[in-house]
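Reopening this one. Same input as before:
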Amino acid sequence: MRKDNSTNAFNEKQINDSCGMAYSLSIIGGRWKPAILCRLLYGKMRYSDLKKSIANISERMLVAQLRELESEQVVRRIVHPVVPPRVEYELTELGLTMKQMLKAMSEWGNMHRNKVQGTESQIPADTCI
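Same output, byte for byte:
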């Protein structure tokens, strides 16, 4: 964990305060958040289904990433009072506003991968959005 008053933390805060793109990436960036957001764009998902749909993500990491997205008001956690407990996740209204941005990023990423690697991807281009 990094100190709040470190040069690195100061630089991160400064760029996030002055650049909308950097701020956006601080919310949705990382290895797992795009995969989570991609799946939730299609609607509510139970925790167990979300876990099964993302290959190689650990429970600890999925919970941590969902909590971060929830604290940013992008994802909503819904707990149903039944036994055993049932938990679902969905995008908030704010989270749904990211759809066009995520779609554009997905399309650009697929195009770039194909150009740089010189081959068509083995994964259909519309897998995410």
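So the earlier flakiness isn't reproducible anymore. For the record, The radius of gyration is 17 Å.
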